[in-house]
Amino acid sequence: MNLLPLLISACFLTCKAFVAPLFTPADTTTTRTTTCQWASSRRCILEKAGGAAAAALLLVTNAAAPVYAIPMVTTDEFESIIRDSSKSIQMVEFAGTNGEVVTVRLLDGTTFGLSDVVESPVDPRSPLKVRATCRAFNVPTKFTAFDNVLSAAPKKKKSVHE
């Protein structure tokens, strides 16, 4: 959900309340009314800004998950899944700079991710530990960042010496 239009309209309303008193005549006969308008607009600002903030908070907290969001499991749950049914896993993809975004694709097309992968040499939730678990159960893996780097690298041409 895009909250940008809501924030822009809230800023427009609050700026309108700020700018309106600045352009009122400043002669001595209207000093008292200008001050009252300014005090009124300050209250208006608080009301409008508070209302906009409450509306934004309500939209953010009640927003449903995006359509493209995939279900997530922990590495412990993934280990039990791979132990019980490793033949039903089509591919495990590691993305991100350190391979910390793990997506599992099953044979029936279902995808889910691992939520608690941490890049650490000693943590059992590291991407390399997940990769070792997959290798132990003969599940194919793919590091997309490495594949992209290797595909962009220039290929060595074989020279033919005659």
Brief account:
The protein has 162 residues and is of the alpha/beta class. The protein contains five helices and five strands, in the order H-H-E-H-E-E-E-H-E-H.
List its salient traits.
single chain, 162 residues, alpha/beta, five-stranded mixed β-sheet, 49% helix, 14% strand, extended
Can you offer a commentary on this structure?
With 162 residues, the protein is α/β, with parallel strands linked by helices. It has helices at 4-22, 31-62, 75-84, 127-136, 144-152; strands spanning 72-73, 89-95, 101-106, 111-114, 141-143. The protein has a five-stranded mixed β-sheet with strand order 1-4-3-2-5. β2 and β3 (101-106) form a beta hairpin.
**Class from secondary-structure proportions:** alpha/beta
Distance between the termini: 65 Å
> How many beta-strand runs?
5
**Fraction of residues in H or I helices:** 40-55%
Profile the largest sheet. 5 strands, mixed
What is the string of helix and strand elements? HHEHEEEHEH
Q: Which residue ranges are poorly predicted, with pLDDT under 50 across at least 5 consecutive positions?
A: 12-24
